[in-house]
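Posted in: Structural Biology > Protein-Ligand Complexes

Title: Requesting predicted complex, 2-acetamido-2-deoxy-beta-D-glucopyranose in pocket

I'd be grateful if someone could produce the 3D structure tokens for the following input. Sequence and ligand are given below.
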Amino acid sequence: MGCLNGISLICIVLCVSSIPSVVFVYASFLPQDQFFIDCGGSKAMEFGDGRVFQPDSGNPYVTLSSQGHTAVSDHETSLSNHSNLYASAQVFRETSSYTVNTKQIGRHWLRLHFYPFENPKFNLKSAVFSVVANGITLLHGFSFSEVGKTSHLVKEYVFEVDGTSSKKLVLTLSPWNGSIAFINGIEVVSVPAGQFPSTKVMPVPLGPAVDVPKHVTFETAYRINMGGQHITPKNDSLWRTWDPDHAFLVNAAAARNVTANPSRIKYSDGVSVEIAPNWVYATAQEMADAQVSNQKFNISWAFEVEHGFSYLIRLHFCDIVSVALNRLVFNVYINQQSALDYFDISSRTMALSAAYFIDFVTNISMGSNRILVQVGPPMLRDLPSNAILNGLEIMKMSNHRDSLHANLPGNHKMDTRSPAGKKKWMLLAISSSAAGFVVLVLMSAAFYLYWRKIHQKKLKPQCSAWMSLPSHLGISDSKVSICSYDSTAHSLSLGRILAFSEVREATKNFDKSLVLGVGGFGKVYRGVLENGTVVAVKRGNPRSQQGLTEFRTEIDMLSKLRHRHLVSLIGYCEELNEMILVYEYMAKGPLRNHLYGSNLSPLSWKHRLEICIGAAKGLHYLHTGAAESIIHRDVKTTNILLDESLTAKVADFGLSKLGPTLDQTHVSTAVKGSFGYLDPDYYRRQKLTEKSDVYSFGVVLLEVLCARPPINPALPREQVNIAEWAMSWQKKGRLEKIIDPHLGGHVNLESLRKFGETAEKCLAEYGVDRPTMGDVLWNLEYVLQLQEASIQTVSSENSANYVPYTPEWLPQMSDQESDATSSAVFSELLDPRGR
Ligand SMILES: *[C@@H]1O[C@H](CO)[C@@H](O)[C@H](O)[C@H]1NC(C)=O
Ligand SMILES: *[C@@H]1O[C@H](CO)[C@@H](O)[C@H](O)[C@H]1NC(C)=O
Ligand SMILES: *[C@@H]1O[C@H](CO)[C@@H](O)[C@H](O)[C@H]1NC(C)=O
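-- Reply #1 --
Done. Output follows.
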């Protein structure tokens, strides 16, 4: 693996080292050529973003050569004062050309505007025509009705005006047999020098850098602002449009948007606002927190493209998520091929929040029609797992027939590049001599080793700092104790204040070997009090302000409550900046560990039902038993703990809130809780009721049944979210297909059906449609009765009432998938992080 990485890295070094030297962009670019033509229009029209469209007649830079053209306008719209480019058009019955005399040679943006408005003279919607610019076919047999768009359409290209065409752009529109052609607007704008590459672009799959011939015309296929909003031409100095990325995310649950203040974005070294506006760099998608401590998955975007063409892929990066340099290292894949390995933006920019971009070229071969862009963490163990992408441009490149369209007349098969063309392409690519290459390889290898060394050095202290809590607490002194724990007092009374010295003694000075788990709040230790009571000691991180609020909430709540199915608070300590909670010890730990991700033996269906019933009793008591209703807010399998005899108790009240009082039906509050368990109704309305706990409990029921985490991004898309996945099977009445295989042969089908129904009701979209915890409890008891009754009458004859041993889906799972789920992801769940 190390060797492979080395090789890819060398390729990257080769590629990157050449980019800054060819890309040179002025910060405040003033295009020499700016032509905005309103076809068929009659008066100048301001767009409000710096663009002023002039009518095509009487324009000194533009000539229209044609035998049969007619200007038409949409009278209703043009009568209103509102200026509208799409309210007029030039319509052609014969092949006609616009000639634009540019001031400059070189690359230009070309934007064509189309909108087939209703008018009495022509049916623009049914027009079929082709458009060619300086000999390059842009559109062929184009018909608006096939685009499937109801609003206007803007086609955007980048093409070269070269010396031989004597600084002219000739745009020819040709109607097809008996049809007409039309156009509403044309824009021609100079592209800053170096904006588009002409040399040394890395191909994917990686190989020698390739040159992009100047006459290649690009068509914008996608321009995406990751994690951000639609950016209109008004907010882009080159009048480009950037779309949000939601629609292209393969698995939205894997990504989380991040936003920085756009004014903080730094531009340097060949990157300017002309490459992309700061609004693009100020937002990104990063990896969502899947609640696994060492998460490994990719964020993926898929884009539909046309096969047989090459595409230029420009990735925009800006590290707006790190707090220090060299903390964010990730891989980038294009169509499942490595593009960037161990990519560290800050090693290129030497700064955070600094804009950076990189280009690749990829061929879409026959039979494929998509570009898949993925970012994900490398397999290195000592790096925090994250990956980002801020922006992405995908540009289609004209082929060797000078066309952006595969179906040209006389071109019977839709073939790709001809062998000769391909050869020429590859020859252009090889740019460095063999000797130069060897030198570069050696340099790169040395650089790579050096780079790894630096990184390991830099990362280690940070990682270990993250792992251990500050040790300044050793100076504490038992003399300061506020009140000492009365060991003779009945230990089931309200939480006591404990002296820090006592807690320290109980945990052998917070011995590492006694750590039971690490949560968001801090570490949990096993301890033994002086009177022999075994306890769980939760020691908060002293610096966390949020921790303090949760600490107080928990003491408040637990001091008021006492129930067989709630974990009891034995005492607490709030001394010397310490926040320590001492609970009854739950010997068998969190329910989750008994379901998946550890080597514990699987629980029987009966035990699982009893545990669910116990937890439901605890929650029912919270909602109704105390003087005031209490909403737990963080119901999940790591907060349901089991004691020696597998009795379930609900724990972790840090987020709990008092429920609504009589004259109020909800508590309005900021959304908190855990990924995968969050009630969509609460999320939408930001109004908390007991029914949010019911929703989360529904997710718990499914986890218990299927023995998998609520969200597992490593699974195929439709399976990622347990609630969606299980409910799709429940609706088909085939829930048994996806249950934990360990339950096979033991679950009575009737009881399973009832269980599935109960979970489904808990997961109802709207809180009002969900049952109360009391109803859930009653239903689960009924499920248990059904199961028990069937066992008493079980015989070989009625084994048909049982779920078969092997669910059908099991053999279909590929090795890779089962590996990913059972080891890579699940093993990380062993450590139950609080939130
Ligand atoms: C970012 O994510 C939040 C919550 O997931 C969502 O509400 C918001 O619309 C997203 N913003 C953008 C710009 O996509
Ligand atoms: C566009 O730019 C204006 C300022 O010119 C700013 O207020 C606005 O938020 C920007 N919008 C987006 C989506 O970039
Ligand atoms: C990310 O995607 C690439 C290419 O598709 C794949 O090789 C890699 O294993 C994926 N990484 C993870 C962690 O799933």
